[in-house]
């Protein structure tokens, strides 16, 4: 299934408002296994919108249009769509929609008259009631379904979720699953797997926790959809091997906490570049008190010496941002806490240069990373990579030649 999305409004082109509708619809359609071929923003111009919609009509299964459904002269989306499907002379007022307008403007007859434009539809249209505003949406067309939705995001999102989603899913069971992958950026992740699969579809995403793959299967039964998802998941796990983090939708911190709880073990941290971000993200999760032991922000060289017993000789010879310093930091932390899992970080945030040290029981890993990002994003990336490494090491899956 293919779709195009049109956001209509000159105010979007002028930069006065941000088009969040296309993003929302795109994400939803991906979940439903519908491929979005284009997202286009067009001003309130009848001819341009008509030409764009006409070009798409018959070439995709769905055309989604947001905005331009109001009562004013520049609200043209419905009129354009009616012309595209060739039903200009086959328009009538929908009785139910008219009654809703009359009730909404019960004390203002002039407003009722002005807003009647919103309740005129071509024969055969499926009307989508607007429970959050006055402009109904609708579905029209034969060889392509044109779906008109209101422009205000609050109205559009509610209508999509409560009036439209069941229509889009009516012919199939659609199920999705997110597979969290560690230590890789979005490009590296996408470059390792074939994304051309059509059922299930597979799409790479990147959020504040790092990369994940969303698998979406469409089938006639839930059993068949589950089978398709499970088969594709096996393929993903085979491709990414030790870098696979989770398939249960949990945050990385939750995955780490659960591993520690299962083994009745504790974690402690010593952080320089991340400034407490690693410990804080763990503490954000319910149940952290059962696993987190001690946390130190050892930002200055003086505190690295004082608390972690990093030698002045190491700092002078190699600097605080070095494998040697990271090694002494993590060993110092272990001597203080005796925690099963110790996590340390150092680096230059402004350069995106990060060194992470993980010690789990008798295994120790010190890894350098280089991120092309501003200082806050570099710190966030460092936090995510530290959690990835900790999870992989605790599972016994880390190898020195791990492919990252």
Automatic annotation (TrEMBL):
MoaB/Mog domain mapped to chain residues: 4-170
SMART domains membership: MoCF_biosynth
Source organism, top-level taxon: Bacteria
Homology family: Belongs to the CinA family.
Name by which UniProt lists this protein: Putative competence-damage inducible protein
Protein's organism: Anaerococcus obesiensis
């Amino acid at each position: 299934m293919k779709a195009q999305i049109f956001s209509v409004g000159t105010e979007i082109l002028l930069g006065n408002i941000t088009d969040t509708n296309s993003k929302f619809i795109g994400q939803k359609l991906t979940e439903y296994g519908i491929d979005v071929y284009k997202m286009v923003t067009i001003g309130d111009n009848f001819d341009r919108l008509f030409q764009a919609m006409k070009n798409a009509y018959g070439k995709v299964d769905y055309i989604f249009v947001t905005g331009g459904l109001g009562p004013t002269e520049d609200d043209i989306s419905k009129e354009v769509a009616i012309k595209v499907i060739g039903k200009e002379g086959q328009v009538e007022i929908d009785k139910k929609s008219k009654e809703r307008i009359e009730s909404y403007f019960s004390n203002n007859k002039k407003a009722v008259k002005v807003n009647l434009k919103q309740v005129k539809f071509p024969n055969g249209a499926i009307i989508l009631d607007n429970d959050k505003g006055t402009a109904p949406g609708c579905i029209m067309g034969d060889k392509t379904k044109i779906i008109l939705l209101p422009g205000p995001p609050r109205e559009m999102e509610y209508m999509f979720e409560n009036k439209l989603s069941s229509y889009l899913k009516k012919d199939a069971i659609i199920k999705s699953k997110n597979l969290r992958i560690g230590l890789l950026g979005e490009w590296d992740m996408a470059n390792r797997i074939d994304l051309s699969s059509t059922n299930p579809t597979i799409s790479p995403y990147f959020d504040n926790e790092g990369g994940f793959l969303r698998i979406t299967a469409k089938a006639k039964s839930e059993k068949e959809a589950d089978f398709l998802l499970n088969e594709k998941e096996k393929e993903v796990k085979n491709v990414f091997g030790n870098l696979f983090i989770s398939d249960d939708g949990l945050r990385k911190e939750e995955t780490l906490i659960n591993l520690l709880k299962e083994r009745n073990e504790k974690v402690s941290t010593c952080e320089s570049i991340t400034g407490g971000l690693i410990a804080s993200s763990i503490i954000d999760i319910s149940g952290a008190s059962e696993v987190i032991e001690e946390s130190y922000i050892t930002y200055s060289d003086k505190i690295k010496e004082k608390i972690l017993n990093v030698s002045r000789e190491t700092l002078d010879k190699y600097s605080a941002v070095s494998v040697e310093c990271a090694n002494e930091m993590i060993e110092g932390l272990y001597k203080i806490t005796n925690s099963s899992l110790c996590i340390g970080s150092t680096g230059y945030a402004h350069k995106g240069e990060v060194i992470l040290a993980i010690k789990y029981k008798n295994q120790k890993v010190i890894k350098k990373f280089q991120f092309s990002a501003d200082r806050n994003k570099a710190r966030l990336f460092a936090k995510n990579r530290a959690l990835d490494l900790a999870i992989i090491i605790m599972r016994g899956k880390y190898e020195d030649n791990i492919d990252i």
